[in-house]
Amino acid sequence: MDADTTLIRGLDWTIAWDEAAGTHVYLRGADVAFRGDSIVHVGPGYAGEAQRVIDGSGLVASPGLINVHSHPTSEPANKGLLEELGSPRLGQSSLYEFMPVFRLDPAYAQAATEVAAWELLRSGVTTLCDLSGAREGWADQLAATGLRAVLCPMYRAATWSTSNGHTVDYHWDDAAGERGLRQALDVVDAAARHPSGRVSGMLGPSQVETCGAGLLRESLAEARRRGIAVQLHAGQSIVEFNEVTRRHGKTPIEWLDSIGLLGPDLVVSHGIFLNDHPQIHWPHASDFARLAGSGAQVAHCPTVFARRGIALNTLGRYMDAGITCGIGTDTFPHNFLDELRMAAYASRLVSGNFKAARTFQVFDAATIGGARILRRPDLGRLAPGANADLFLADGRHPAMRPLRDPLRSLVYSAGDRAVRDVFVAGRQVVAGGTVPGIDIEAAIARLQAGQDATLATTAARDWARRDVDALSPRVYELRG
């Protein structure tokens, strides 16, 4: 008897991977079996023995979703603050004027991460790429949540500030950038040795305008030595586009290409503001063709930009051109299925074309696209030999019915409400919609304390010495 085999028998729907066709397909009445951390059967009539059998009637089996870009150590604390906040004289972004003011103290990083992980797991995410500052115990804390984790420690040679709300100043310290890279290398090297087997690394020079050519080239060389990728924020703001063109006379994409960064080892975080974006007038470049021809990949995070009236132009256009795209939750909430819906709707709105991002493209980006970015062909698919990262959705949930197409029901109607069970490396980490490995009430209480501490001192960090109520007024006036 296979003592460590789990069988999910007679599933109503299975989103299976057809290797020959290179696509996901729907199966009815299939069985999914996994032994240890590996899938051994997807299809009808599993004939082997199993220690555990799950009745699949009424259930939808999906490959686990892959989040390629997230900041879980800080973003959960921004709830109630940044939903309607941006700088009208800094390209509508909240990056430069507001986010530094509301930055959560690192002492609360673990609580924030647990809150984010709880939301991610309950929405079907099994792999998370965490772009954060390096900290003691980071790998252990993420592994304890049950997620598969990619640590992407961020570092940079320049910090930014604004003294007036309409200009951005950059403060350079090349030695700090070098120290950050060395610390990041220690983190990713240790991650590769983590005993869980579920932690790995990626290098994260923070932003294209806060890193010099030397630091970026050195980062790329070190990543190549380790067989990992570099993820870099670029094309994320009008301020960034203007700053890079001011310095170099080149767009960010052109400059990255000119210094040897733009290629298959680079993941471009966001990649929105190319020269042909509707909010940019720079007709003297061909960023889209350059990006598509380079083999570089894009981490697409629609929600955080939609809040600011900004959208990628468009996810479908990028994917049709052969650009590998993944999906990330750059901000709160970390409800990944909501992010998929936003990815589809934002593309359709900005283009005026209902075909600008089809459901299969959004789901592909969240599964096989993310797997390609992470160089993990064993993730993002349900197929024999793939890793046993999957989730089960309740096809009988009222929000899923009437059920004709499970992905359309899940993405556009039910969302995380229908997610029932989640498995990572064959281990169940969500059961019946609960996450037993995370004490969510305790984590929320600690996070609330962290947000309260941050908001008590916002005026000291703001250029105009505004308190939180002046910076981010409540929806309605508070009385009594």
Please name the CATH architecture of the largest domain: Alpha-Beta Barrel
Which geometry do the CA atoms define?
Answer: globular
Overall mean confidence score, pLDDT: 97
Number of domains: 2
The low-confidence runs, each spanning 5 or more residues with pLDDT under 50, are: none
Please write the CATH class name of the largest domain: Alpha Beta
Strand content: 15-25%
- Sheet with the most strands, sense and barrel status: 9 strands, parallel
CATH topology of the largest domain: TIM Barrel
Give the oligomeric state. single chain
Structural class: alpha/beta
Tell me the helix content: 25-40%
Number of contiguous helices = 15
CATH superfamily of the largest domain: Metal-dependent hydrolases
Number of DSSP strand runs: 21
The span between the termini is: 67 Å
Description of the molecule:
There is one protein chain. It contains 15 helices and 21 strands. By secondary structure, the chain is α/β, with parallel strands linked by helices. It has two domains: 5-62 and 382-430, Urease, subunit C, domain 1; 65-373, Metal-dependent hydrolases (TIM Barrel, Alpha-Beta Barrel), CATH 3.20.20. Strand 20 and strand 21 (427-430) form a beta hairpin. The longest helix is centred in the middle third of the chain and has 19 residues, at 174-192. The protein is globular. The mean pLDDT is 97.
